[in-house]
Amino acid sequence: MSQHQHQHDHSHDHGHDHPHAHNCCTGHGEQAMPQARTLSGANERAVFFIQNMDCPTEERLIRERLVDMQGVGALEFNLIQRELTVRHQLPSIAPLVATLTALDMLPAVKSDSLDADAGRDQVADYRIPMRRWLMLGAAGVAALAAEILAWTSGDESSLAVIALAVLAIALGGLGTLKKGWIALRNFSLNMNFLMSLAVIGAALIGQWPEAAVVIVLFTLAEMIEALSLDRARNAIAGLMAMAPDTASVQQADGSWQSVAASTLQRGARVRVAPGERLAADGIVVSGTTSINQAPITGESIPVAKAPGDQVFAGTINEHGAIELDVTTAQADSTLSRIVASVQQAQGQRAPTQRFVDRFAQVYIPAVVALALAVAVLPPLVMGVPFYPWIYKALVLLVIACPCALVISTPVTVVSGLAAAARNGILVKGGVYLEQGRKLRALALDKTGTLTHGRPAVTDIATLDAGADADALMQLAVSLAARSDHPVSRAIAATAADGTARREVDQFEALAGRGVKGVIDGQAWHLGNHRLVHELGHCSAALEARLQALEQQGKSTTVLCREGQPELVIAVADTLRPTSGDAVAELRRLGVHVTMLSGDNQHTARAIGNQTGIDDARGDQLPSDKEQAIQQLAAEHGVVGMVGDGINDAPALARAQIGFAMGAAGADTALETADVALMDDDLRKIGDFLRLSRKTHAVLVQNIVVALGIKAVFMALALAGMSSLWMAVFADMGASLIVVFNGLRLVRGVPRSTSA
Q: Among candidates 140, 109, 133, 123, which has minimal Cα distance to 47?
């Protein structure tokens, strides 16, 4: 099993602008603008569920208030999960709670390092209360009635119209107005402030019905946007829900009892009935079955399991009752680590997301300045009436709302991360998800990546046409079974079907050459090419046969009777059946594939020929692999590395993206790989590259749509062809378009369209 030993600091080795910086939307990263002070003693940690944090507007407001608070170190935001993590050195989190409450964020403590019991009973509830829907419905009726009355009477400022408009604003917009006041009080130019200013301005110039319609539509847009974000949130929650809540555990008296899966400890004996999901990682000790491992590895075909095999929490027992010994507590299971990695990865912001966040920093002030200029300059310079220009400025303020632009990037990234995880591809951050599209070269280790990583018998040939190959093989197996050499173990493994072994007398290991022994009174040797030469019986024909096999990258073993060669056995590390297809797909995607192997050049060339890799390099020491990565980067650009051990660490550290093969159940690979392939299918690197390219395309589409719609309506507003309610519809439409476009990625990883 490959284990990615990729232990290095990406921010230096990879040259990444690594995401320990403010994330305007999902941020699990620390903030960068403004920069939170780094406190060496900020070892305490508090996690809050923020009920009212469902837009970048609230995240920015919280950040601006907490960043300068004494004792606060780093802030980590996760908008999708509505979580805020504060690292601090405060004696109590009371000041944090007070500040969040003053901002009307409705904070709930999920965990507090100063109080072990904090948050134990807190349950995150994302649902919008029915009362809010009813109030919004009543507000909509009142706003519509005000519009109808104003239109039929021709008086937009009658007492009846004003009363209906005020009722609509009170029922549907008090929350927005309250948030706008909080933003103004904290000197924060956010969309709630802009919308409040637009509504109040419309009322002051006598546009009461329009003020009511605008606030109702804006509130409706916010609620619909919150609901649409639930899909991205549920993509993560769906991963967490794959493990069952209970498990059948054997008690001290031998009876079986259903207990909470969260209480399972290492060593517990668990029984799993057919059709049930496994509650924990473990080793099968009784029974045989097939396990649907798709939730962990993405494999479409169930995998046969027997005593001694490893199984994972969240997978499905297809048939046959089994018993297993738990190897990890549920909180430490492979599934739990996958979920944790995906949640943490939300903060690893993609380059496009960082661009959008920086753009938003100057976008709102620029539009506010433009709106102010539109409202004031034409009347003062040209002497025209103030009213129409003030109205145009209010429309610009509504159009200025950046939510559609900023919210689209985290939804897209989270959708991509969740889709990858569901297909057995664990991506450790948005930066790698988007960077994958730039991959131009990939270096593959041979053993455990292209091959199974264990030798197996590939060729058996008798040297006498009339000899009994099965009988000779039985003798070879009998001798090989007494040796611990990998080649001998591979030969002995061919008798796993129960073939009887012969008794070997006077057994002796011949260091570096093979073994010898006496069977039924005859002396037999089983050894390598060198041993045959020492016995003096390596004929020209045998020499040619052995060299031909060795040219194919195979290790040769010869069985000799009384010194005479009788049987030739070839052993090699066998190729994975998917390796050839994987390499072909990578080449179709425009990736230069190189194999870096510590084996000799003959073996490397043989595997390269079988897989279609032209650039196959053998005799590679760790330093050679590192230099190869540098060379590939200089020639091709962004380079990735697939490695399986300590000897690959320098090369992995040098590559921009490190891949781990077969990471399921491997702590090291899950923790250190940039991209971990949960099973041994190399084709998933191609899936990852296609997903990366699609993710980037969706991000670009969303930016173009969000900015394009705003540009069109800004032009319409300046031309006097857009109204306030049309601007709100445009903003709501843009938000929904980009969110649902991003959510398309949840449907799955793009597959190859080639034959």
A: 109
Mean pLDDT value of segment 576-599: 90
Contact 247, 259 (CB under 8 A): yes
Q: Which CATH number applies to 246-332: 3.40.50.1370, 2.60.260.20, 3.90.1640.10, 2.70.150.10?
A: 2.70.150.10
Question: Which residue, among 504, 495, 537, 509, has the nearest Cα to 523 in the 3D structure?
Answer: 504
CB 210 within 8 A of CB 202: yes
pLDDT in the model for residue 583:
93
Beta strand segments in 562-711, E: 564-575, 592-596, 615-617, 639-643, 657-660, 675-677
Q: Residues near 105 by Cβ (< 8 Å), separated by ≥ 6?
A: 50, 51, 52, 53, 58, 62
Among 578, 571, 531, which Cα is nearest to 554's? 571
Q: Model confidence over 667-684: pLDDT tens digits?
A: 555 566 788 888 778 899
The answer, as to whether pTM is greater than 0.70, is no
Over residues 17-43, mean pLDDT: 42
Residue 325 annotated among the catalytic residues of the structure = no
Catalytic residue among 445, 599, 644, 681: 445
Is the Cβ–Cβ distance between 375 and 439 less than 8 Å? no
**pLDDT for position 33:** 38
The DSSP result for 180-193, as a single string, is HHHHHHTT---HHH
Output DSSP code: residue 598: S
- Answer yes or no: CATH 3.40.50.2300 is held by domain 453-575: no
pLDDT digits over 177-186, tens only? 888 888 788 7
